[in-house]
Design brief:
- The chain is α+β, with helices and mostly antiparallel strands and 341 residues long.
- The chain is 31% helix and 28% strand.
Length: 341
């Protein structure tokens, strides 16, 4: 055999370690380039996988800048490789939550709906009072008392706020893993609930300065008293893996100490599984630059109708897989090896 695979990523990461493990087990040569050295890397003669960089800050304002820099570096890679697992432009096409969701909605894909056709933004937190008022006015006009507020470009629940304003009483509540601490908007790994107006308003002013999309808060299906959604890894035209994410609150990301669950325990009817498969297939056809993606799926409470929450072009790191058979990465290695020959 001639040629090799190339991996771009971060030294010491689980992604790197387990992709290398998969390549070794498949007896496929692999060359790794850290993001700090990728500009000098030669990527000719094989297939390339791009993993995300590790962000070096928990300050969400600084992280916004790092995401912007990452997007620029992706564009610089576009013509560097002959074959990509996911092309740089394909990854970037779903990195922006607003444009990704808008495209899904325009093609009739069921999603957790945005209640605005614009990114809501306040350029500076200290001048963001007007943005909070625009948010509340938007919620009133759309009759949406409960919403998710998400930075347009982020991942891992960074900056996400589940916000509820109770009709009639004026009471409100917010769930989030970010805090305003020492003049910084800090992403943490612990979800808290806020109820005081002053605290919530300060948080919203800060989050809105990042540029956000606002989505309707759809009730999720539950299992044994806890709500859940699904992370579906879709690659090469089929479902490669599913993990259910359970939570006692509205935010289910597993790195926030929520509980993973074998999705088969949910006892979903084959018709529901077929709908999940169809919605993933239809969505991925809109993004031909992606051969692999993590697709977050909400099943509506009662009907179990699937809706796409978001698509992550680098959403293939599933602990329940890498610490078991490592099937996702092995499948990638085998397919990339054939593509790159």
């Amino acid at each position: 055999m001639t040629g090799k695979l190339y991996l771009i990523g971060t030294k010491g990461s689980k992604r790197k370690g387990f992709f290398e493990k998969a390549a070794a087990e498949c007896q496929v040569p692999l060359e790794f380039f850290d993001w700090t050295e990728v500009e000098q890397a030669s990527l000719s003669g094989g297939a390339v996988k791009i993993d995300p960089p590790s962000y070096t800050t928990s300050d969400l304002w600084q992280m916004n800048g790092q995401v912007s820099a990452y997007r620029s570096r992706l564009r610089g890679l576009e013509n560097r490789g002959r074959v990509f697992l996911n092309t740089p432009s394909g990854i970037e096409s779903v990195l922006d939550k607003f444009s990704c969701k808008k495209k899904l909605m325009e093609h009739g894909i069921a999603v957790t709906e945005m209640i605005s056709e614009e990114v809501l933004r306040a350029e500076e937190p200290e001048r963001a009072d007007g943005a909070v008022e625009r948010l509340e006015d938007m919620m009133r006009r759309c009759r949406a008392s409960s919403v998710f507020i998400k930075p347009s470009c982020s991942s891992g629940a960074a900056g996400v706020v589940a916000y509820r304003k109770f009709p009639g009483s004026g009471r409100e509540a917010a769930y989030t893993s970010c805090r305003v601490l020492g003049g910084e908007l800090v992403n943490t790994k612990k979800i808290c609930r806020m109820e005081r107006r002053e605290e919530i308003a300060a948080l919203l002013r800060s989050v809105l300065s990042l540029g956000v999309i606002v989505e309707r808060w759809h009730p999720k299906a539950s299992y044994q008293g806890k709500s859940f959604d699904l992370r579906v890894v879709w690659q090469f035209g089929e479902i490669a893996f599913i993990v259910a994410r359970q939570s006692g609150g509205p935010i289910t990301n597993l790195h926030l100490n929520n509980a993973p669950l074998d999705w088969r325990k949910l006892g979903l009817a084959e018709g529901v599984v077929s709908e999940i498969r169809c919605i993933c297939r239809d969505a991925m056809e809109l993004f031909p630059g992606l051969m692999s993606a993590g697709i977050d799926i909400l099943l509506e409470k009662g009907t179990l109708r699937p809706r796409i929450i978001e698509i992550n072009g680098q959403g293939d790191l599933i602990y329940q897989d890498i610490y078991a058979e490592n099937t996702i990465y092995k499948q990638q290695v085998e397919r990339m090896w054939k593509m790159g020959k």
